[in-house]
Amino acid sequence: SEGLQRHFPLRCLQISSFANSSWSRTDGLAWLGELQAYTWRSDSDTIRFLKPWSQGRFSDQQWENLQHIFLVYRISFTRDIQEFVTMLHVDYPFDIQMSGGCEVLPGNTSKSFLDIAFQGTAIVSFQGTFWVPNPDSPPWVQTACKVANQDQGTRETVRWLLDSVCPSLVRGLLETGKSELEKPVQPEAWLSSGPTPGPGRLLLVCHVSGFYPNPVWAMWMRGEQEQPGTRRGDVLPQADGTWYLRVTLDVAAREAAGLSCRVRHSSLGDQDIVLYWGRGQAS
Ligand code: PBS
User: Fold this and answer.
1) Does the beta carbon of 96 sit less than 6 angstroms from any atom of ligand 1?
2) Averaged pLDDT, 100-121
3) Which position among 2, 142, 208, 260 has the lowest Cβ density within 10 Å, counted as fewest Cβ atoms?
4) Best mutation site among 154, 158, 169 for ligand 1 pocket (most ligand atoms within 8 Å of CB)
5) Looking at residues 258-274, what average pLDDT do you find?
6) Is the entire prediction scored with pTM above 0.95?
């Protein structure tokens, strides 16, 4: 369905660490929406499927071909970067990160992206059929792009991977992975007290764990009144692909009674989880 396809970009990440002229490693991983589907370790010649649906609708032969392209690419990339470094006098050690992929849009269209970062800062992106330095990149990056842009074969391959291979892989994955991608998982919630913020005060903690997909709403309430002092933690990934969140409230101990934590999530329909402070938790 169109609604499904919209929210599941394929994001392929490459992380390359160059320690000196003779040691480097390159690892890869890829996500469809919030779910990691592939991993490719530096010491392995094969891209590993992390989901039963990771092959999508590609045949074994198509995967073989794709894997071969990436294997050649990894060797060439490492060699080319080392040449750039010698030519352009860049200092070791450094990390290069690449992020590339696509999203399938309604009406048989797609949009794609490919960005490169050096030491954590974006320096280059692939646009149309060229490597383009970011406006504020140092001069050596512009030189590197000029050199890279002379390789028409690589530019064509990159364009083909982004415009043709990526969207067709994603279309297959949306079919083979549909039930897992679409299936919401309900959070569990519980209350605890955190480290005391001061004399006569309490830190109320509401834990929300195990939900999928990511957006969740959680608030400390008094009756229907949202408590503006609610502090939201970061949404943290868990090993099973679900998410964890905590929201806290710093209150005077005598005002804790009657407070509740309210949780809304797509998996719950309109049945919000409501937990009352003082009923059950060890405070
Ligand atoms: C310090 C950072 C500097 C950034 C510099 C600018 C960005 C450059 C990024 C270059 C990334 C490609 C590296 C490999 C490439 O240069 C080339 O050596 C090889 N090309 C490929 O493997 C194509 C696949 C690219 C996938 C990219 C996914 C991100 C080998 O090229 C040679 O063989 C191919 C066929 O295998 C062609 O014939 C090509 O013309 C030929 O040069």
Assistant:
1) yes
2) 96
3) 2
4) 154
5) 97
6) no
Quickly tell me which residue has 């001069």 as its tokens. Answer: 139
How far does the centroid of ligand 1 lie from the alpha carbon of residue 49, in Å? 24
What letter represents residue 42's amino acid? S
* pLDDT tens-place string over residues 14-60: 999 999 999 999 999 999 999 999 999 999 999 999 999 999 999 99
Q: Considering only CA atoms, which of 92, 96, 63, 91 is closest in space to residue 78?
A: 96
Nearest to 175 by CA among 46, 12, 56: 56
The minimum-distance atom of ligand 1 relative to the CA of 153 is 40
Distance from the CA of 197 to the center of ligand 1, in angstroms?
A: 55
Distance (Å, whole) CA 44 – CA 40: 7
**What spacing in Å lies between the alpha carbon of 151 and ligand 1's midpoint?**
7
| 264 alpha carbon – ligand 1 mean position (Å) | 47
> What percentage of residues in the chain have a pLDDT greater than 70?
96
* Closest ligand 1 atom to Cα of 126: 7
**Ligand 1 pocket mutation pick from 15, 16, 151, 169 by most atoms within 8 angstroms of CB:** 151
